[in-house]
Specification:
This protein is of the alpha/beta class. Helix 11 packs parallel to helix 13 and helix 12 crosses helix 13. The longest helix is centred in the C-terminal third of the chain and has 23 residues. It is globular. The structure holds pyridoxal-5'-phosphate (PLP). Pyridoxal-5'-phosphate binds next to helix 4.
Length: about 450
Amino acid sequence: MKKTFLIKPMLSEIYPVVDYGKGVYLYDLQGRQYLDACSGAVTANIGHGVKEVIEAMNKQAEKVSFVYRSQFTSEPAEQLAKKISELAAGDLNWSFFMNSGSEATETAMKVAIQYWQEKGIKTKHKIVSRWVSYHGITLGALSMSGHSSRRERFVPLLEDFPTVHPPYCYRCPFNKTINDCGYLCAHELEIAIQRIGVEHIAAFIAEPIIGAAGAAITPPPEYYKIIKEICERHDILFIADEVMTGFGRTGTMFAFEQWDIVPDIVALGKGMGAGYTAIAATLVSDHVMEPILHGSKVVMSGHTHSANPQSCATSLAVLDYLEQHQIVQSVFEKSRYLFSKLQTLQNQFSYIGDVRGKGLLIGIEFVQNSVTKEPFPRNLLFTQTFIKQAFHNGLLLYPAGSGLDGIHGDGIILSPPLTISETEMDDLIERLTKTCKEIDQILLKGG
Ligand SMILES: Cc1ncc(COP(=O)(O)O)c(C=O)c1O
């Protein structure tokens, strides 16, 4: 094996070397084909190798790739901010650009704190969050994340923000069912606010659909209406972390539209650049910007590459592509098709405990016993084994946590490029079914 100097996710593993990508498929240097059923990390939303985006990237590179934001603005940056303000509901009109989802949620946190400071309230520094959540890996974003295994090494450096349970109907934290729960998980926020003291809380943050930490945990219909009402009544801003769900992944441009609410601040990432560039954004509503515009006039955040014309032009090209091919509009139909196929798989394999999600953000939770919902023992490394087997079958899947403690649970996310065709979905299901059968055999052998 050639000596490597690259720090990869698992230092003991050997990774195939990618050669190129086309549509929903990736090819390695050995010529092996992989169906990208998770868009990498729920990112390559329009598939690989899209000519129109590559052309737009080259065109911008020929003009200028980088300017520093304190010296110049640029047409692509201005146009992208304008475009997003047209797409976003309510008065979500302002965009701050950066490079990653972690930076977007961390900036959201800082803007929320600054908002209250500019209004003369200097005590609101806490961000209430949920256990079983992920908002990013930088220390501020990790502080907001209810993701035990990612927090573990850094706990002394983190704020202990997460406070309330997730809206996890498959494993209701209150042992209720959706018909008799009275939305206890949403109302729990009110109790948390009273305990902490509203004078200390700047905002509540939530992923509309819980991704990496919860395998697409999707709240019931009234959940966010109740959350938003509680936030408003207690003078707490609501931050929607749409890093995974944003730009059409769930069948609407922003997932929060499906619960008929408008957040005060939104974090975007992944799908914004669709893997063609590193770009993310914090969207801020007019009413949150207002005291800043009349106060310090400076949002205290920023990165060297914030709003660079190259990334902004790329993101604009991604948005153009989504619009011109009416891709977001096609998501519900594709979702219906995939869900129906997955239902059949669930009936066939008892270890598929739950299939959930919206649009093309679909989670599968695996259980040892589908009646008791008992998870597999940790030492079985079920998720890793499943993903490896799928990989062997040329199918890329995204690992996700599951279980109320975020540790004892197994899951995956299926999130193919939104451009996937019916034939390609059939190919996906075929590879997944093969994997399920092989895993069944492994389980039968007691592996
Ligand atoms: C909901 C959510 N927020 C934030 C992040 C962090 O984004 P990034 O990895 O680009 O920093 C992620 C990444 O998976 C995410 O899923």
